Fold these 4 entries.
Entry 1:
Amino acid sequence: MSKQYDFSRALAEADRCLLCHDAPCSKGCPANTDPGKFIKKFKMQNIKGAIRTIKENNILGGACGVLCPTARLCEKECSASHLDRPIKIGKIQEFLVRHGREINFKVFEKPEVTGKKVAIIGSGPAGISCGAALARKGYQVTIFEKMEEPGGVLRYGVPSYRFGKDSLKKELKDVTDLGVEFKCSHPIQEKGEVQDLLSKGFQAVFIATGLWDAADLFDKKPAGVYNSVDFLSSPHTIQSDLIKDQVAGKKVAVIGGGSVAMDCAGFAQTLGAQDVYLIYRRSFNQMPAEPDEKIESLENNIHFLILNQPKDYITDDTGKITGIKLARTQLAKAKKDQRRVPVEVKDSQWSLDIDIVVEAIGNKAFEDSGKIYPGVDLDAKKLIKASLEDCRTSQEGIFAGGDIVRGPSLVVNAVQDGKTAANTIDSYLKQRKA
Amino acid sequence: MNKKDIDLSIDFCGVKFKNPFLLSSSPVSNSAEMVARSFEAGWAGVAFKTLNSDTTPIIHPSPRMNGIQYGNKKLVGLQNAEMISDRPLKENLADFLYLKKKYPDHVLISSIMGFSNDEWAYLAKVSEDNGADMLELNFSCPHMSVEGAGHHVGKAFDLIEKFTATVKRAVSIPVMAKMTPNITDMTEPALYAKRGGADAIAAINTVLGISQIDLNQFTPKPNVFGLGTISGTSGPAIKPIGLRFISEMAKCKELALPLSGMGGIETWVDALEYILLGASTLQVTTGIIHYGYDIVEDLIEGLTDFMVEKKITKIEDLVGRALTNLTTTDKFDLKRQGRAEYNLDKCVGCGQCYTVCKDAGGFALDWDGDKRQPVLDKDKCLSCMICSFVCPICDIISYKEMPDTWKRQDAVVMGKDLEDQLNFQPFKQPI
Ligand SMILES: Cc1cc2nc3c(=O)[nH]c(=O)nc-3n(C[C@H](O)[C@H](O)[C@H](O)COP(=O)(O)OP(=O)(O)OC[C@H]3O[C@@H](n4cnc5c(N)ncnc54)[C@H](O)[C@@H]3O)c2cc1C
Ligand SMILES: Cc1cc2nc3c(=O)[nH]c(=O)nc-3n(C[C@H](O)[C@H](O)[C@H](O)COP(=O)(O)O)c2cc1C
Ligand code: SF4
């Protein structure tokens, strides 16, 4: 992880900003962050104004500053790239939000509760963002969260070395200060419970439950094989010590090539794994993880086993994993615009000794996730059908956003959905009143 | 307290400004088309580009400005050899009418410059008759080469009084005199303006200087086809000079006129510094030349947040607040001494502190080459603090007051052995 900026570094970086007219960075953020504006404010010593610009638009501005793949968002079109490199917008943003806390600057005043009650299911980025936006409009918001602590992926997914739980806590405080109520350890799980909320005094419900089922590689899952959800959330669960013991000093294989796989590999390393292998059946460039994540993982001594297809797990007589059978692959010729597919190389099977395996091949919705909101239209993958324009579902009064609508996406997209939903809910409820 | 409780409006010579921020007279206030945009951006008023009465043809040199760069920092200062408005008077006045019609709540200050007594009176009158809320008498443009105009007046104090009095007789709107900094003491000409009836003083106009020389043509810049001139410097580089003159006039009890401060204002901090030293309206040119009209948003927001933090609701309560702490060196308590304090946790080992302390400070630093860190010999520190000015990291070097039992070590005398060869008698005051 690159170092956080202190005041002088942040200012030096802001000084590189060309203060573009019609700033291209400000068009690159899915949540409409305006870096052109907050960097200019920072340069003009209007530091509180800069922080206000960030936080009023994005309640998770600090988290986004750290977690956003800025290279393909705001920083992508930065004019300074034509000189040498883009301005490090994310890092300046993270600094400003942190600095705001250091100088005890409160962006928000506690809004007066004037409006009706709204329920939100899930306290991930989408739920938080929607809750904060509604609270600022005067609504009384309750967020139901099945886990013990709020934050969604920010707490139970992203490892601490990337985004500290302390930062999360502080950013969440801005939300509770707005009057948003978190009801943790409170799963919404009964059949039709979401609809029931509507008859229990809540005027609207926003579903932001994310994706918490992990895809399985094979039918069998021998001892020592984890999925990414259980593995990454382990610091916060009873499995914490167990997994730590199992990984320290051991050989760990992570299967997958996305951002989650990179996190699993990095997390295994922080637990003291002796060697971490990353197994991916396609090429390096085809890995969906962000380019800088991949480079960082390589530099951190993760062994990349690309063009390798897992075939089977090898176990000892107690049923515990001892190795993986792999086959080498080659990329087939491209078919039209499609991704080149990996094809097994004949007679190339080999096996890798391994103590622990983490499968990180994709998060999905639970098969029965629709149970709590029957009547809300879902697609084949059990994702909720909702328009990203307004987050409306097929049922009146029920709105949805974030990963449970988009599929695996980004924090910043979830934040945007939360804002969109808040606006729709606001106009929906105002209309109903009229 | 919150932002809603803050009132940035100010009464200046009986004229109400919705905030203290104005365009100063210059290219940024050259036409109503531009000024209108500035009003939309949030500026409360304008000192319009200095009018002329069409008797003298005005042609600007080309090019007419030069930017002063320091390292990679652009526009730390600006050099200009621009004249007063080159637009026909009628067009400027028509623009006045437009602005007053469209923006009745914004303050229109007509900046004028005459070349004779009658011309001053004429320009004052037509300004008033066409909507100006106030006048600013330009006694300070350094580039007008006509005797009896611009800064030539600003340096001939009796003319200041005379022209001000003429204008005051011609109009009933408040009159402000804009002063040149290219003199040693501004209170004196300001008092002449007051005697002439001025209601306020505006300062500073640009500081005479030479910013750069074209090394191939041996010509000062702006290089106007092979020739250069001593001309007006503005922008951040001249802020210390502007603050000085404003504070001296604010301290002058006899003067006691409202002050419109300018010179190097870009941020709310610059503006606040002018306010704390006695200015109650603020004018900006170079900041706008550098960043555009939008900086007013940051001026307003930054100042408002500051006032919320300090629980001060009105600008008036800030005006001149630093003046009581501004004094002369003889009032300093020299018994209290201190030194630099180093906290090396964040030190990156560049060693700039060592270099400057050795060559320009008390040689109080040693250099640990293995650790790449300075080692402070505390008793040798002069508390000049130059090390802190060059240190790239915040918070490493701070100032620490020492108890009165502490004694600073004297500088080493290299010629100790040679003292017997000294050719020297202590100075005795002749009786
Ligand atoms: C390991 C990992 C790393 C990632 N890294 C990044 C990154 O670096 N940058 C980035 O932009 N994106 C990243 N993402 C993606 C990003 O985290 C998600 O897109 C985002 O969190 C989606 O937000 P959400 O609010 O929709 O869902 P979530 O964050 O998944 O939150 C959903 C919440 O709902 C709760 N919930 C679910 N069902 C119920 C129920 N029935 N009752 C009550 N509560 C319920 C869950 O417990 C959870 O707290 C990462 C994702 C993962 C898995
Ligand atoms: C290009 C230029 C033209 C100017 N023209 C005038 C003018 O016509 N009349 C005037 O009173 N001052 C004029 N000034 C001086 C400014 O109004 C102001 O007093 C000075 O620039 C200091 O403020 P600043 O540092 O904000 O620029 C001019 C300044 C510049 C840079
Ligand atoms: S700023 Fe505009 S008017 Fe001035 S030289 Fe450049 S292009 Fe020409």
Entry 2:
Amino acid sequence: MGIVARSRVKSPWIFHLNTGSCAGCDIEIVAALTPRYDAERLGCVLVGSPRHADVLLVTGPVTRQMLPRFIRVYEQVPEPKVVVAVGTCASSGSPFLGGQMVEGPVDKIVPVDVYVVGCPPRPEAIVKGIVTAVKKRFG
Amino acid sequence: MKNMVTEKHGETKDVEVDYARLRIPFGPVHPALKEPVSLRVTVRKEEIVDVDIVLGHVHRGIEGLAENRNLVQTLYLVERVCGICSHSHTTCYVQALEEIGEIKPPERALYLRTLIFELERIHSHLFLLGVLAYEIGFDTLFMFTWHVRESILDLFEKITGNRVHHSMNTLGGVRWDVDQSMVEEIMSTMKNLHKYVQQIHDSFQDKSVEKRLCDVGFLAKDEAIRLCVVGPTARGSGVDMDVRRDHPYAAYNDLREDFSVVVKEKGDVYARTEVRILELFESINIIQKILAKLPGGNIRVEDNIIKLMRRIPQGEAISLVEAPRGELLYFVKTNVKGGLSRLKIRTPTIPNVLGLKPMLVGCEIADIPVIIASVDPCMACANRITVVDAVTGEEETMDTSVLRRKR
Ligand code: SF4
């Protein structure tokens, strides 16, 4: 394994995109990075630009306004990338399924590697989701 | 614009310079924002001269969805309006239904509702204080407040089984009871929390923190009244309002003597922050009083929620609560078939976001994130169908039929 591939596993960089979530999943993602769960000990870093990221965490059912932005952000993440759908909303669209402004779920728009379900999922589950995704694609 | 240009060889020149205005798009996807909102900021040099706020990125059509579901399904839907103040939304909704159906929840249920309500306020305020610390680059304080916040989430999990969406409310009462050991645990957590909040309070009085927070993002009192801002944002500008005192609901009528409304006059970011910190002490106090007074009895009037739902006739009601961010209003209109013919949600962030404009104008670009954070906007709550074309200033409010066509 080359140094680049190895660092991808050792230290996956994460970009978090809210596509219309209720903020429940987002606070659990942040909680996963704060002292109690501390995903940073696994080398995870939350980055501010999709161009720096290896892992794209998507929350929310993808609203119509966010759809073009979501696709743009997805395209900006360099290959190889993994997409983790966090929350029931992102995984299946429920409970907003059938809403007039809802275009999702996420896998209708882009390929998803790992689904983390729960409304919202616990921070441990989110950490597990990231680890599984990284192992699956890069490991 | 007239401007003095540097002296050259001892002579001063008067030159006409028109600093071009620069328009900076800020968001919807931006590292300083946790939720999508788009600001179009017009700047002259470093100074902000105009702000335009574009909402709607998180608009999911909840009010429309609610009209196709029955009353109980809607209870779980409105909980998902916002992940931070989910209990406020369900309380407000359930109160309206209880008024229409003339259902009177037992005393104990009202106290338990209030208990969760205040725990939620603590969790939400700690959340905001952490974000604020993060925005000014004080990561240690950010991590510390979020660590303290975990103890509240633990309580939520032990009482209701879930950390974020508690699903505590049901028609005519609450779903979970607390026993004696739980009461003791909450008491001891509150004692520790008091100590931690004191530490957070001290950290916010640090000189370098004050430098970032004092004297930025002013909102004058008359401006605050004119824009109808609510909650801690209004109280930080000297407007004395609080639904808990002015229109008591749940158990707040009994607890009237046990809390005071925190008001600060100054109207800057620091004042709003201080209001929130002092409210944390008030909330801790309220929780201790609730646990001391907790009456016995049932926690709901009827176990079969569907039976209760059928009892709700056609009618309409307005309900108000003081969510962590301010006054939250629900207008609920039920129909004969046990569904809703109209649900209108007016969240506190809508008026508060309007207050951003006077706060931001005149400040510097670097202060944008901290000023936005200081009104604690919750975008998941705030998104509406009104579409504002920021370039032409055109406003278009879409109704359902237009939306259907667009689909
Ligand atoms: S899955 Fe649940 S908590 Fe997460 S964004 Fe959707 S509604 Fe909110």
Entry 3:
Amino acid sequence: MINEADLKTVTVLYVEDDDYIRQLVARFLKRRVAKVYEAANGREGLDIYLANSDEINLVITDIQMPVMGGMAMIDAIHKLKESQTIIITTAYNDEFHTSNKVCRNIIKPIDTEELLEGIMFCMGLKE
Amino acid sequence: MYGSERINVEAEKTKILIVEDSITQAVFLRRILQRYNYEVIMAEDGLRGDEKARETSPSLIISDVNMPQMNGYEMCKKVKGSLGDIPIILLTVLSDPADIIHGLECGADNFLMKPYSEESLISRIDNLLTTARPHVNTGFEVELALGGSTYKINSGRHQILNLLVSTYETTLQQQRQLSEETKQRMEKERLLVQQSKMAEMGSMITAIAHQWRQPLNAISLVAQDLDDAYKFGEISEEFITEAKDTILGQVDFMTKTVDDFCGFLRPSKEKKLFDIKKAAADIVSMFQPYFSRGGISLNLHFAETDASATGYPNEFKQVILNLINNAKDAILSANGKAAPKIKGRIDIEVAVIEGKINVIVRDNGGGIDDNLIGQIFEPYFTTKESSKGTGIGLSLSKTIIETNMGWSLTARNIEGGAEFRIEI
Ligand SMILES: Nc1ncnc2c1ncn2[C@@H]1O[C@H](COP(=O)(O)OP(=O)(O)OP(=O)(O)O)[C@@H](O)[C@H]1O
Ligand SMILES: [Mg+2]
């Protein structure tokens, strides 16, 4: 049983280099969760994470990005906190763009229903 | 009426002597003659030919020209001298005009150029056996100067005419063969170009598909957001305008990508002066996103100086695309084998060296096998499986650069990879 109200306690770090997509997905998230931090590449994402790691419950990240890619950022975050829950959103369903160390790999184009279901599952809000 | 049919009754089989040193050719000829019901006698050179002619008195002799012991001309002269009434057909390759003179000089009755067709062989035999052609000196003697020597020819008109006709026939036949070969070659070339166009279209479509992923994703999100925003009561005029602008912005981008690629696929109509650096940059910007997806960086290094040249700009871009595609394939295949994986990179340099513009494409994909590097520009040479390569990329690139534009395209191995250089 999905109860969207439970998401109101969740803080998300969302990392995506495409401005339109970041804006649209962030908007979708903001309607449902407590807070959304936005970053345009792995470097920015990592900086925000370092400053707010206590607060951030969930990281949602693209893979292919300039400056620092998603994989490098995920590795750095996992070194800090192995248990950090992460969801990948990527355009490519291949070994370079997906990982089995994250909770979900979501292939673009993003279906917001699927994303929502993934978030609920990863946050343990749904069996 | 059976007059025109060649039905020989056993008793009156016509005897033909074949003088030919090549067994295969002799047997080939014998088979044809036997099929037309001639009795065949064979001799393997001029000396034996002359002997057999005396022993068996054949109705006709067919003789090769180049043979050991005694050649065809000599044998012909000898037979004509003593057994003057046996018609002789000489088989020649006719590589030298002097062959004709030698043929006439020795008194041969007819000539057949190798390779000959069955019909022309049989029609000549028929002709010689059925027409009365008394080989007598007609009294007129022609003196002919050719290649520094003078030849005395006293062949009959009949012979000269025969020779003329058979030479003409052969030339026609050869020409027909040649134009058939030209046609086949042109067809093959057309196919080659066709295939490479298909391959090019393939990379285009992959690149377009790649370029379109993000905008398609954005448009799909806007559509989903409309629904969501309505549920959350956020729909306003401003919201709708923003959604519309986002969609149109993405559509504009998608249109531009397609326009870029269509422009690139159109062949350049004529040679013109174009900026080599800009052409290289254009092709890189079109394919960079696609390459970086594979983890390969495409880097440009441009000389400060102006680098313009006269040529076909789109074809030049196609060559660059072929080269970077090859480099990408090399890197991906090297990464398929080696661990740890290399960080793939392709460097495109435009430099002016000793007044010449050089376009250099280097990669770190491990280079080309030393045993194979001499063959890479040959059509259909490929080391890739058939779904990945047809082996025409480089051969076509070489034609474009060298034949169509008069520049040069060369390849060599460098530390860690391959280097292709266009010198303008
Ligand atoms: N940069 C390179 N590094 C290593 N080998 C190369 C490189 N470029 C070309 N080759 C070799 O040369 C061969 C011929 O290249 P060519 O572009 O003509 O054909 P292809 O790439 O196999 O097929 P296609 O017709 O699809 O281009 C390749 O199969 C490969 O073995
Ligand atoms: Mg190729």
Entry 4:
Amino acid sequence: MSQDLERKNSKIVTKLVLVVLVMFGFGYALVPLYDVLCDITGQNIKLQAAADSETEFTVDESREITVEFITAINEKTPMEFRAETRTMKVHPGKYYTVNFYAKNITNNPIKAQAIPSISPGLAEEFFKKIQCFCFETQTFQAKEEKKMPVRFAVNPKLPERYKIITLSYTFFDRTNITEN
Amino acid sequence: MTAVVAEHDDHHDHHDHGPEKGILRWIITTNHKDIGTMYLVFALIMFFVGGTMALIIRSELFEPGLQFVDPQFFNSMTTMHALVMVFGAVMPAFVGLANWMIPMMIGAPDMALPRMNNMSFWMLVAGVLLLAATLFMEGGAPAGGWTLYPPLVLQTGKALPFAIFSVHMLGISSIMGAINVIATIFNMRAPGMTLMKMPLFVWTWLITAFLLIAIMPVFAGAVTMLLTDRFFDTSFFNAAGGGDPVLYQHIFWFFGHPEVYVMILPTFGVASTIIPVFARKPLFGYASMVYATAAIAFLSFIVWAHHMFTVGLPIAGELYFMYATMLIAIPTGVKVFNWTATMWKGEMTFETPMLFSIAFVVLFTMGGFTGLMMSVAPADFQYHDTYFIVAHFHYTLVPASVFILMASGYYWLPKWTGNMYDERIGRLHFWLSAISVNILFFPQHFLGLAGMPRRIPDYAIQFADWNMVSSIGAFIYGFSQLLFVYIVIDTIRGGTGKATAEVWEDASKHGLEWTVPSPAPYHTFTTPPEIIPTEHV
Ligand code: HEM
Ligand SMILES: [Cu+2]
């Protein structure tokens, strides 16, 4: 192989290896990019870190929305978890409280985090939670059972076409996860 | 100055001796033909390993109920079948063809980076062996599907980190192979072999190599995130820590959609090489073929979420990905048109490579049509994750990529071995394959439309009949592939007689590889050939 060719080869290899490294970085860059895009499109509001402030709405007595509650535990979370009721009829603008019950079924303390999800996704921005056990990681002592209220209201601006909103919580075990 | 000349001479000496003796020849070889052969043989073995897994799947699905394997193992089979076929059979087979044919087609003495070439082959073997080893680990092989979606895949037992490292190795191997192809094509073409004179197989591989370099690192990143989520408490995809499993799907399909084109673009290249020879006409629309390939490659980066219509994309996203996906049908249509136009009024003969190529044009088009159906976002809610999509991608992969790989085998085997294969058995292999592949996959369209989900070991009674038909097709198809093994061995041993240098009538007008003797000598084009204007320009 002539020296000239060797030089040309190592030049092209260097360039291509650079592309490879950039694309590896690009994969990771998709992570923050995804959050930004979700924000812009109002999709998939992930961990809501804090409560909404309690705004006064004018209550719309003429309209009734069905709110459904679903509870689930992630595969390995050793808990029992339920809502006091499956459905509620609510008037937009009015604040309601619904209780959830969760129990640690092991003999050791555990930490668990509930992740909320609202369906249909586009109704999410009209669902206001001013109190929720999902805002922080919960600690349960051995066999401890907790009653956990959620206080919420549906914004009266919710478009007419939404008649049912489903609120679902999943508990994830975080006992072995170090907080940062 | 003198030193330079001396070294130059040294290298020439090196080039002149033949292969090493014995087994060592294969381990340390840097010869593109040896490495190409190893890739092809390895791919063929993996084709049967993956095929055995497919037959386990089809045996279980022959009747409703659970009869042979437990559901966990069944799911491992669907996962491993796909991974072995994609990364162990189809991709390596095309790398093998690239190794053998690209230097000969562009008049180069070897690949640009011969030692790296050897390394990428052995890295592939190690990666696939590691993947196969997961079958014997505690908790079984990955069983969450070849897409490795979290959170399901994170429930894999001891095998998870090994599967992930194996993906890393396979990725590094393909990246090295791709870099080698690009360096070879850019730096080693014989004088006069301009880019627009290159055979289409070389063109499609050049574009495929760029795809690989762009997507394999992204896939490596995605599986690395899985690894750190499982073992180092990161939360890329873990909702409890603020992550999102849907993010994985975006990253995966950013890789995954171009990946399916990695398997089909070289297929297009071989079809465009074979069809003109047996139609005895130049390829219709050479330049448009090049541009269409580039267009498909470009579009493949911006359509990934058509695999995710049902995850809850914003409506604007659904519409964008729907229309962008539909656009792919245009350059694809250009290609199908060109192949048809090449055959139009040609003096066609129907040797085995041509038979497989014609079947490819017809059956690939059917796969493209079902793809087009699924690109309609609202309709895809019905098709998604059913046997309909299984039928779709098997039409684009088996009677397309695999048929064309078989065609390549028949087409170049006389050049590789110096002997002619038995045309009668070749045609028998073709007809058995072409008929059984349709018995195998066509009924899966009906099953999918009727609602049978993919990746399940058991199903409702109403799906029984078509599943049985499909399984029968699978066994005929699987066993008829043994004919190919027989033919390869028979041809190596002498076949039906010596092949001429040109092998196919007037083939030397279509490619430089037909100007060297058969079998191709260990070293070809150590001095660059003179490029005669080929017919496609
Ligand atoms: C005209 C061109 C094509 C179109 C419009 C198209 C469209 C689609 C769509 C919309 C899906 C997603 C279906 C779903 O999950 O509901 C899909 C899946 C798939 N396609 Fe295609 N496709 C085309 C060509 C190809 C080709 C050429 C290949 C491979 C050689 C291919 C391989 C696949 C594979 C492997 C999947 C399934 C991936 C999985 O979920 O496991 N497609 N295609
Ligand atoms: Cu796709």
